[in-house]
Amino acid sequence: MEIWSDVMCPFCYIGKRKFESALQRFEQRDGVQVTWRSFQLDPAVKFKPGRTLYDYLAERKGITPEASRRMHERLTAAAAEVGLRYNFDAAIVANSFDAHRLTHLAREHGAQDKVEERLFAAYFSEGRNIGDHDTLEALGAEAGLDTVEVRQMLAGTRFAAEVRKEAREAESLGADGVPFFVFNRLFAVSGAQPGDLFLEALEKAWAEQPAVSPS
Description:
Layout: E1 2-5, H1 10-25, E2 35-38, H2 53-61, H3 65-81, H4 97-108, H5 112-124, H6 133-142, H7 147-155, H8 160-172, E3 180-183, E4 187-190, H9 195-208
Parallel strand pairs: 1-2
Antiparallel strand pairs: 1-3, 3-4
Helix pairs in contact: 1-9, 2-3, 4-5, 5-6, 6-7
């Protein structure tokens, strides 16, 4: 099970919750391995002090700040339906590239889901700058990663190639946005779909997975 996402994508956090609810209902859930993959919605975005998320989206979409605010109000309501609290008033627009590198480090330590969850909450609920190295170091530590290792990774270019490679891979699989859920490389589900659809996809992927020949 592979999930392409961006920690700045509101639908990705909602999709995470919907998928998790489906996974809890899946009888074979203990046999499902989830890997988070990197995808940036806006690789060129830069942190600008004082810029609100409403203004950023208005600029990017060519809409008014008022229309942007209404869009985010609808997202806040959708998030609340799955138990998430979005605080867009406090959200800090920043580049997510280094946050993705942190998730790659977490994967090596079996803590990827914890780090993904921590990054989502930090961005959408807590108004923390997920492009700032000190913030990422603290979030990694909160998820159980070694502070020194995180600091050394962020200071260099480790995992940079992997982040870019996974983004290209998503496009080759047909993704034009995220979240993008890929089941055993057999088929994919795009978007924050209802939990029942994810459950059906899990059951189908389990039934259609290639048989393992006895050794």
